[in-house]
Amino acid sequence: MGAYILRRLLLVIPTLLGIMILNFTLVQFVPGGPIEQILAQVQGEGDVFGGFAGGDAAPVEETFGSDSEYIGARGLPKEFIEQLEKEFGFDKPPLERFLNMLGNYLTLDFGESYFRSIDVTDLVLEKMPVSISLGLWSTIIAYLVSIPLGIRKAVKDGSTFDTWTSGAIIVAYAIPGFLFAILLLVLFAGGSYWQIFPLRGLTSDNWESLGLGGKIADYFWHITLPVLASTISAFATLTLLTKNSFLDEIKKHYVMTARAKGLSEKRVLYGHVFRNAMLIVIAGFPAVFIGVFFSGSIIIETIFSLDGLGRLGFEAAVARDYPVIFGTLFIFGLMSLVVGILSDLMYVFVDPRIDFEKREG
């Protein structure tokens, strides 16, 4: 097992390198960099992307000018633009900038945000609790619902209950998370129907003045809709995985032997089958958590105005805040790869019979 873990750890390096090369290369071809954003604001144009939106666009020579490649640079001193390039590091060739970035990342130095004047690491640590909270509650609720439902479906396999619940979870899986989030806002957050839950944020304005019980209640009041929106698609995979695991175990000889001894069906299911069938479901917890954490965080946090990593990444992409973009990509990629290794270790922990080295051989 040690050799397998070592190989997986060594694969982390080229995988992260490939992710960073791909994203850094793509960014070089995306219009509207951080310097263009600043020049557009200096010129009073508000947002650099207005030039790409169509409408009454200025002629190309008026937009770019004769002395600069930047949108909005016409009429500004060339020295000012050169100073901006030097400040952001764009006075160096792309390859040199990329190698410098990798060198800093080796020491976990992700630089400083262009527009927030704060270290990227501090920024990520500040936003991470919100995303972890959302992902953790979504995963726990998905397990609490999916495991009993999957067991019931396995026991009632082929029945009307099994058919209708399968249809329901497949429909839930097919609903886009952002669409379900908007539906929840319209129905329960003061849209066109009821105003039961708050529209945005994770806490109320009077959070500091609340007691411990009030803070807990306020927290769950705010997080209910975001958790529901991010959990809806996780039910299908977990429920069907639980059902199939139970069906596989129910057909094995030891279950028939237990029934032949006169044990009750409840004793057979929860005393024998449950322990073996749940191995793969429990071992997959880290992977499910990281899946919910990544897949829903950007959309859900943006819709519900939650100040987490997903919203941070979205705002950084819009503002072309490259240190934040590349820093969060590196951290997300590293987390995903490490969790993949932890998932494999969890499988071995819950079932020592699993041997990844023999499977690879």
TrEMBL record:
It is found in: Cell inner membrane; Cell membrane. It holds the Pfam family BPD_transp_1. One of its GO terms (biological process) is microcin transport. Its main location: membrane. One of its GO terms (cellular component) is plasma membrane. Keywords: Cell inner membrane, Cell membrane, Membrane, Transmembrane, Transmembrane helix, Transport. The chain crosses the membrane at residues 9-30, 130-151, 163-189, 219-242, 277-304, 324-350. SUPFAM superfamilies: MetI-like. It comes from the Bacteria. Residues 128-343 form the ABC transmembrane type-1 domain. PROSITE patterns: ABC_TM1. InterPro entries: MetI-like (IPR000515), MetI-like_sf (IPR035906). It is a multi-pass membrane protein. NCBIfam families: PRK15133.1 (NF011712). Belongs to the binding-protein-dependent transport system permease family. PANTHER family: INNER MEMBRANE ABC TRANSPORTER, INNER MEMBRANE ABC TRANSPORTER PERMEASE PROTEIN YEJB. This is Microcin C transport system permease protein. It comes from Cribrihabitans marinus.
